[in-house]
Design goal:
The complex is a heterodimer of chains A (176) and B (520). Chain A is mainly alpha-helical and 176 residues long. Chain A contains 5 helices and no strands. In chain A, helix 2 packs across helix 3 and helix 3 runs antiparallel to helix 4. Chain A is globular. Chain B is 35% helix and 16% strand. Chain B has an 8-stranded mixed β-sheet, sandwiched between helices. In chain B, strands 13-14-15-16 form a 4-stranded antiparallel β-sheet, covered by helices on one side. The N and C termini of chain B lie far apart (62 Å). Classes of the chains: A mainly alpha (176), B alpha/beta (520). Chains A and B meet through helix 1, helix 2, helix 3 and helix 5 of A and helix 1, helix 8 and helix 9 of B.
Amino acid sequence: MKNRFPTLTQIIPVLSILCVLFYGWTAVMFLWKLSSWLFFLTFGEIAVLAAYASVTNLVESLVLLGILLLAAALLPARWLKDDFSLRGGALAITLAGSMLLINHLSVIDRLGPVAYWPLWILGALLFGMALSSIASRVTIVGRAIVWLGDQFSVFLFILLPMSVVSIVVLLARMLF
Amino acid sequence: MTKLSRRDMLKVSAAALGGAAVAALNPSMARMARAPSAPARPNILIIVFDTMSALHLSLYGYGRNTSPNLDRFAGQSIVYHSHYSAANYTTPGTASILTGLHVWSHRALSPSAPVLRHFTGNNIFRLAGREYARVAFTQNLMAEMFLRQFHADIDLHLPPQSFAYKNPLLLGELNPDDPLASLAFDDFLVGGYKLDAPYAGSAALGTLDLIVRRGYATHPEVERALQTEICFNGYFYYKNRLVFEGLHQTLQRVAGQPNPFFGYFHLWSPHEPYSPTQTFDELFEDKLRIPAKPDHPFADPPFHQPAELYRFRRVYDRYIANVDAEFGRLMDSMAASGILDNTCVIFLSDHGQLFERGVHGHASRLLHQPVLRVPLLIHMPGQTKRLDVHAPTSNVDLLPTLASIMDIESEMETDGRLLPGLGGAADETRPLFAMRGMENPALGPLKTGTFVLVKERHKLQLFTGYRGLNQQFELYDLESDPEELHDLSASDAPTARRMQDELLTARDAADRAVLSADRK
């Protein structure tokens, strides 16, 4: 069973891409809200909101990573598992990126009717598969994705401990 | 004297630490449980129905029987017949209710603007003080902005989606004792409210929320229900019946506290989209006569056709009848549970609604009577008879009147006066001001907007700063022309000039006060 999953060294770059995209988006939105929160919240309360955000980001990153790992385990190994840092990275960029795009399009009212949304999901998946295929064939694209994953890994040293502390804070608030 | 062993000491210390942690981590619990105060003070319940025009209530003589329950409630209340909102839409109108200040003083001009920072402590919750258990709830997210701004003065702040249909992604209830959980998930991460940032804070939750909400709204069964059963405020779905039942349960909860309660409940209904339940869906199939009013040249197109406006008016009236029935049920429940016996109930609205001159809504440039005239009824504990007050009054009068009702010496700034019937003088010559200024910066001089002065029988309306419009006045005689059909600004120039001077002097004085306070 263990052989059906990629190795940890292949998983970490994909997780780091997901984390940077999800935490990064949230950080920008957090700064957007900050000026309003300063009107009525203390710094401690704002820190608690940051803790909720951080835990949510960790969960969404892990859920998407889990979906990719499940796909890697179920699909033929050469489709995803063998070159997970590259193909998984391409899919991570596409899936997380499409979520950011959907949020943006909804705000500018360009998302279209609900009936088209399955097409959106299908389109994102096809684009992700195409990107991962291109990445494995076109060296510069592949190297760019792998490079991104490697470079982003350093952020995990900040983001993951931050999320662990946040979990402890929130558990304390829930339990007491 | 019993000696404490080391083990006992450890237990006591742990319990003390635990108690302190609970209090620190659960501020709402700590703040609700205070030492009892003097028992003589009545509970205060303020109910704001959003967008309820007094001119559509049978209570005030409207041609349709839209408010039989309010009529009944009026039998044991003080009824204000010339009551005005300070503004034409929620943000400035609510800010005036809560601060007792004119719009040009508090400057919550644009839809998501708070009141000026130095007025943050100038609010009815601070006025009530810690001797009251202060509870606040609104379904209107513009009003929610102020509840957040006045957060430090509110003991129990119910999230807007309380009593609503639960979007499974609104995760605030994961930790219901933590008010920050709702703020974190329901406002920020899921991004349902978009008050002060347009995007969801979490990309994944925001995407899922879009799917859930839009999928819900377009489900055929829900689409049908939306026509008749379920109401929507642009952010979440709810049933008025459940909201009012929730309010009553909340009141029962806070009435059990040692302190009297001070409740502010600002409901979305009867704001559009109008969603009367089936019971009310066939009312008013009549031929109500509405005076013809041509499209107003200063309003923004597109203009609605009279037939369309008539249709909107009918559904609005049905919706008022619907929420009036729910209000009646709430009052009956409060009477049955004994809460009403020691509660001062204040019923009002933040602004009205227009169905004339080509305009449907309230945010337009036109500040005609249906958008400014709002209901005000005050029931004092033990009151059994009706008292009618015809002197002009304003929503800014609420704060000083509350101070009197709660017997509190207040040094808060206010543009209001003590209401007649509760100690105030009935001043028929009093000037009343209202304005719309959403295009103005909060801290700049008021150059663009519509400004209104009502004094004695006359009403002056000034349109200024709009594209192609500068210093255009309209003057109406409200006694002989309550429908505001005949502009007298040319034929009664002396009155128009006198009122212009008074209006502009008051506005400019407010400008100077704001600008000098800002410089300090």
